[in-house]
Design goal:
single chain; 491 residues; alpha+beta; seven-stranded antiparallel beta sheet; six-stranded antiparallel beta sheet; 15 helices; 25% strand
Length: 491
C-alpha cells in the first residue's frame, strides 16, 4: 500500500519528518523517500528498504537534513515508485508523493503524449511511475488545486497526495472516495499531514481532523484552509481495520484496535468453539483473539510469540519460498502451552493459505488436541483495485479462487460463492478447512464486519466484488461491477 507524512513548521522540521515517516514503515517494504525545502531549493533522498529498516537507511540523511534547518518536508514509504519526485512547472517547483493504486496509467500516458506531445522520465520496470503520471496531470491544469481535482476525475483506482511547494506550502489531498486516510495534526510550531494518525501524539501533534473524501487542503506553519471541498461519497478501505492499519490509529473516528476487539466478539457470538485457550496470529490477529476471548470467556494465551527485530511482514515477498521461510522464522512456538490443548486461533485473513496451513501443522506436530481457526473478515474473492494491499500477481494466488477453480473450472460463477448460507460457499469452506488440516474454520460475515467497524460506507470490494464507484467501468451500465458482468476490471 504505502503511507506518507508531511510537515510545515516554524522551526527545523527534520526530526518530525524523519520519525513521522518512520511511523509508516509497516505499510511498505520496497522504497522510502524524504524531501525538504531549504535555502531556495529541494533536497531529496530515496533508498531501497527491502532488506533494511527505514530508520537505518535514512539516519545519515536525517543528520544532513537537520543541518539544513528546513521548515517543511514530505516523506513516504512505498511498495511501488521511487518517491518523492521533484517537478519544475508553471506551478513552480514542488515535491510530490502519492499513496494508492492508479489502474489506468497506460491510458493516461497515451492520452497525454497524444495531446501534449510531452515526455516521461521516471520509468520503473519499463513503465511510467504512478507519481510522475499524477504530476503530469497536475501540471496540465492552470492551478495546483485544479490539477489535483483533475487527478481525481481522471484516474481509475485511488490516489492520496502530498505536494510540497516551494516557500513551505504543503497541499494534502485525500483520494476521491476516501479509501485511504489522511489525518491532520497541529503542533506548537506547525501542522502535519499523515496516513497513520498514530504518529501524531509522540511527535507532539494534536489530532485536528481527518480530511474528507476528495478534500484538498493548503497547509502552512500558521494554519490550514480547504481549497477543494470534500465529496459526499465515502468508501474507506475496511481491510485497514482488519489487517494493515496500525492498532493505535483511528480512521473516520474509529480506532483500529477497538474494531479488532469487536471483530473477535462478533466471531465468538456467531461461530463459538469449545476450546481451552484462544490465541491470535501475531500481530494483527492478537486484537481479534482478545475480543474472541472476552466474549467467549475462554482464556487468552500466546502459544506463538513473534520475533520482531529483523523479520519484515511475511505476505510482501514475491517468492513463495521466502514468504514461508519468514513466516516460520518470525513465529516461535511455546510447546508447553500448545501440547494437549484445544486451541482457537484468530487471524485477520487468509490470502494464499500456505502460511496458516504451516502454522496449523506446527501446532499438530506439537501435539495440540484440536485446532479451530476463526478469520476476522470474509473470504477474499477479488484482488484489490484501489489500494493493492498484496503483491500477488494473479487472482489465482487467492486460495478461494484456486478452490473455486478446482470445484467448477475456469467459468465458475464466483459471485455465487459469497453467500455464507449457500451450498457453494460451504463447499469452498470445507475445501479450505481440509487444505489447512484443522478441526473447524469460520470466516466473518460481511454484516458482522460492518457492525464491528461501526461505519456502513466502507469499501468491501475484495470480499463482495461490488463498489458503486466502479459503475463507469461497466459496459452494461450496472450499479456496480460485480460478477457476472464480463466487463469488470479486477482480472
Amino acid at each position: 500500500m504505502g503511507g506518507f507524512f508531511g510537515v510545515v513548521s516554524k522551526e527545523n522540521c527534520a526530526s518530525n519528518l524523519f520519525y513521522g515517516t518512520d511511523y509508516h514503515s509497516h505499510l511498505g517494504t520496497v522504497r522510502g523517500g524524504l524531501a525538504v525545502w531549504s535555502s531556495r531549493e529541494f533536497h531529496r533522498s530515496i533508498h531501497d528498504i527491502s532488506n533494511s529498516p527505514f530508520r537505518t537507511r535514512f539516519e545519515t540523511d536525517y543528520e544532513r537534513f537537520g543541518k539544513l534547518n528546513a521548515h517543511s518536508g514530505v516523506g513516504v514509504i512505498s511498495d511501488t515508485d521511487d518517491q518523492p519526485l521533484l517537478f519544475l512547472s508553471h506551478h513552480g517547483a514542488y515535491a510530490l508523493v502519492t499513496v494508492g493504486l492508479v489502474k489506468n496509467i497506460r491510458e493516461i500516458v497515451e492520452d497525454i503524449l497524444a495531446r501534449h506531445k510531452g515526455q516521461f522520465s521516471a520509468m520503473q520496470s519499463g513503465a511510467v511511475t504512478q507519481t510522475e503520471v499524477v504530476g503530469a496531470l497536475i501540471n496540465s491544469q492552470d492551478t495546483i488545486e485544479d490539477g489535483i481535482r483533475h487527478v481525481q476525475e481522471v484516474i481509475r483506482g485511488s490516489c492520496s497526495i502530498l505536494l510540497l511547494k516551494e516557500d513551505d506550502v504543503l497541499y494534502a489531498a485525500r483520494d476521491k472516495f476516501g479509501r485511504t486516510p489522511v489525518a491532520i495534526g497541529r503542533g506548537a510550531d506547525g501542522l502535519c499531514a499523515a496516513t497513520e494518525s498514530c504518529c501524531l501524539p509522540n511527535l507532539g501533534f494534536e489530532p485536528l481532523r481527518d480530511l474528507g473524501p476528495g478534500e484538498v487542503v493548503r497547509v502552512t506553519a500558521t494554519g490550514m484552509e480547504t481549497v477543494v471541498k470534500p465529496g459526499r461519497a465515502s468508501r474507506l478501505c475496511a481491510f485497514l481495520y482488519v489487517y494493515y492499519g496500525y492498532p493505535a490509529s483511528s480512521y473516520n473516528g474509529r480506532n483500529v484496535e477497538q474494531v479488532r476487539y469487536a471483530c473477535g466478539e462478533q466471531l465468538a457470538e456467531r461461530y463459538p468453539a469449545e476450546a481451552d485457550i484462544v490465541a491470535g496470529i501475531p500481530d494483527s490477529g492478537v486484537g481479534h483473539a482478545l475480543g474472541f476471548a472476552h466474549a467467549s470467556g475462554i482464556c487468552y494465551a500466546r502459544p506463538f510469540v513473534k520475533y520482531t527485530p529483523t523479520w519484515p511482514r511475511s505476505f510482501m515477498p514475491a517468492s513463495e519460498a521466502q514468504r514461508r521461510m519468514i513466516a516460520d522464522m518470525k513465529l516461535i512456538p511455546i510447546p508447553s502451552i500448545i501440547e494437549g490443548q484445544r486451541i482457537v486461533f484468530c487471524d485477520d485473513s487468509i490470502v494464499r493459505g500456505t502460511q496458516l496451513r504451516n502454522q496449523a501443522g506446527r501446532m499438530r506436530d506439537l501435539k495440540a488436541k484440536e485446532v479451530h481457526i476463526r478469520i476476522a473478515c470474509p473470504p477474499l474473492l477479488y484482488p484489490c483495485n484501489f489500494i493493492s494491499f498484496s503483491r500477488s500477481r494473479s487472482v489465482m494466488d487467492l486460495i478461494t479462487r484456486r478452490v473455486i477453480h478446482d470445484l467448477e473450472g475456469d467459468k465458475a460463477p464466483v459471485h455465487l460463492y459469497r453467500d455464507p448460507d449457500g451450498e457453494r460457499y460451504q463447499a469452498m469452506l470445507a475445501r479450505i478447512r481440509d487444505f489447512l488440516r484443522i478441526d473447524s474454520l469460520a470466516f466473518q460475515r460481511i454484516e458482522d464486519l460492518k457492525k464491528a467497524i461501526g461505519l456502513q460506507n466502507v469499501c468491501t470490494y475484495c470480499w463482495t466484488g461490488e463498489d458503486p464507484s466502479m459503475a463507469r467501468s461497466c459496459a452494461r451500465g450496472c450499479s456496480h461491477c460485480a460478477e457476472p458482468c464480463s466487463s469488470r476490471i479486477d482480472d
